[in-house]
């Protein structure tokens, strides 16, 4: 083979190798492009996963209508007061010699609470009794004189009829008779006066003893033995006007001031629930005794009296209370009630997050608030019984947010 032929053959081989390698290069390029495209997709999905918001874990509750006689139409605050109480004082000016009660003591009606120095009153009583005794003795003497004068007078009249005595003698005997009769009448009146004096002196002596006007509990002891006590506006200086205060615990009730704008929610006989501030977990049933038919123009309120069914030593005068007036509306008109923390306030209304039917999203639903009670808010419109409301992570939600319901 000539040199020229070998060159041509070599060139042909080189040309064939290039033609054979072309498909391999194309396949390599295709693989590289596919790998790059796949990597781009993976990176995009990863970035989408990082930027897409996570499903918010929440708890939910199902809304129910307010049961009868538990839906509150109005909440208010007030105080326990005693309808029957008295601050005892003496009817007369005097010095205390004994106070027989202490705070917390129970007393019965008529029980002696305190005593004043009765030396002067007793002296006056003894004097009046002595005068009564003298008057009664005088009455006995006058009665005897009158009884003696009566038969003498009638005998003289008989003698005059027989002509045995003169008319002048009968006149003298009649004068004696009239004087005896008058003396007897005067003596009888003197006895009545003396008896009245004894009664007055006895009353003054009785006034030195201060008694309980009714059964109750002593809530305040204001005076001590040795002090001067007197009725109001009597005495001076450090004179006491009160000795002790007694409260009839069976007369305890609640008085509250209800704003004029909401008084139409209250009426006599309406049921209430009561919570003492001192015992917030103790619920007491009660009812409205009366709506006092006058308003306080300075406060713009109306006083309401409420009676409690419970009679318990824990209930004390002047304790603060919270009162929930129960609604008389039927269930379909009472709306629903939710704990206040389950809604987001927005002015006069609020927003509640309701779970959609698919259970994966929430709807931000605007609701109109009504009157509530004890940590609950009334929902007048916007929610219906059966709606599922989100109760947690409200600050992480928005309308249409993805959620994950946790048990």
Shape: rod-shaped
**Integer average pLDDT:** 82
Q: What is the CA-atom radius of gyration, in angstroms?
A: 52 Å
Stretches where pLDDT falls below 50 for ≥5 residues?
A: 15-22
> Could you tell me how far the N terminus lies from the C terminus, measured between alpha carbons in angstroms?
92 Å
Number of helices: 4
CATH fold field value of the largest domain:
Elongation Factor Tu (Ef-tu), domain 3
CATH architecture field of the largest domain = Beta Barrel
H/E topology pattern: HEEEEEEEHHEEEEEEEEEHEEEEEEE
Helix content: 25-40%
Strand content: 25-35%
Number of domains: 4
CATH superfamily of the largest domain: Efflux pump adaptor protein, beta barrel domain
**Total beta strand runs:** 23
What is the C-level CATH assignment of the largest domain? Mainly Beta
Q: How would you classify the helix and strand content by structural class?
A: alpha+beta
Major sheet, described briefly?
6 strands, antiparallel, barrel
Question: Strands of the biggest beta sheet: in what spatial order?
Answer: 3-12-15-14-13-16
Summarize the structure.
By secondary structure, the protein is of the alpha+beta class.
Question: What report would you give on this structure?
Answer:
- With 407 residues, the protein is an alpha+beta fold.
- It folds into four domains: 57-68 and 332-405, conserved putative lor/sdh protein from methanococcus maripaludis s2 fold; 73-83 and 249-326, Elongation Factor Tu (Ef-tu), domain 3 (Beta Barrel), CATH 2.40.30.170; 89-117 and 208-247, RNA polymerase II/Efflux pump adaptor protein, barrel-sandwich hybrid domain (OB fold (Dihydrolipoamide Acetyltransferase, E2P), Beta Barrel); 119-203.
- It contains four helices and 23 strands.
- It has helices spanning 3-51, 119-162, 167-206, 331-334, and strands at 56-58, 60-62, 72-82, 85-88, 94-99, 106-107, 112-116, 209-211, 216-221, 228-229, 244-247, 252-259, 271-276, 279-296, 301-308, 320-326, 336-339, 344-346, 349-355, 362-373, 376-381, 388-390, 403-405.
- The protein has a six-stranded antiparallel β-barrel. The protein has a five-stranded antiparallel β-sheet with strand order 17-21-20-19-18, with no helix packed on it.
- Strand 13 (271-276) and strand 14 (279-296) form a beta hairpin.
- Helix 2 packs antiparallel against helix 3 (167-206).
- The longest helix is centred in the first third of the chain and has 49 residues, at 3-51.
- The radius of gyration is 52 Å and the shape is rod-shaped.
- The model is unreliable at 15-22 (pLDDT under 50).
């Amino acid at each position: 083979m000539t040199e020229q032929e070998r060159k041509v053959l070599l060139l042909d081989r080189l040309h064939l190798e290039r033609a054979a390698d072309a498909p391999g290069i194309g396949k390599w390029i295709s693989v590289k492009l596919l790998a790059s495209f796949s990597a781009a997709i993976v990176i995009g999905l990863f970035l989408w996963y990082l930027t897409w918001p996570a499903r918010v874990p929440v708890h939910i509750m199902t809304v129910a209508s307010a049961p009868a006689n538990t839906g509150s139409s109005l909440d208010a605050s007030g105080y326990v007061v005693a309808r029957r109480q008295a601050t005892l004082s003496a009817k007369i000016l005097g010095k205390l010699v004994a106070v027989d009660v202490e705070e917390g003591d129970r007393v019965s009606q008529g029980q002696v609470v305190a005593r004043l120095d009765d030396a002067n009153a007793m002296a006056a009583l003894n004097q009046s009794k002595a005068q009564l005794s003298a008057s009664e003795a005088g009455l006995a003497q006058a009665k005897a004189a009158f009884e003696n004068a009566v038969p003498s007078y009638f005998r003289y009249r008989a003698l005059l009829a027989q002509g045995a005595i003169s008319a002048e003698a009968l006149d003298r005997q009649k004068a004696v008779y009239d004087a005896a009769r008058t003396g007897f009448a005067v003596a009888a009146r003197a006895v009545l006066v003396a008896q009245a004096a004894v009664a007055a002196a006895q009353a003054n002596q009785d006034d030195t003893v201060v008694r309980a006007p009714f059964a109750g509990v002593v809530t305040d002891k204001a005076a001590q033995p040795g002090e001067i006590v007197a009725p109001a506006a009597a005495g001076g200086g450090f004179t006491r006007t009160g000795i002790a205060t007694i409260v009839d615990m069976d007369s305890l009730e609640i008085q509250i001031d209800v704003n004029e704008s909401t008084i139409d929610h209250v009426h006599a006989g309406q049921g209430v629930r009561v919570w003492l501030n001192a015992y917030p977990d103790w619920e007491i049933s009660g009812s409205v005794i009366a709506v006092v038919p006058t308003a306080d123009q300075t406060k713009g309120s109306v006083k309401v009296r409420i009676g409690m069914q419970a009679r318990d030593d824990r209930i004390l005068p002047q304790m603060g209370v919270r009162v929930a007036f129960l609604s008389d509306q039927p269930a379909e008109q009472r709306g629903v009630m939710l704990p206040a923390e389950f809604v987001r306030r927005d002015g006069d209304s609020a927003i509640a997050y309701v779970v959609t039917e698919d259970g994966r999203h929430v709807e931000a639903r605007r609701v109109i608030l009504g009157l509530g009670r004890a940590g609950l808010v009334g929902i007048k419109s916007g929610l219906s019984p059966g709606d599922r409301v989100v109760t947690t992570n409200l600050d992480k939600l928005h309308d249409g947010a993805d959620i994950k319901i946790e048990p």
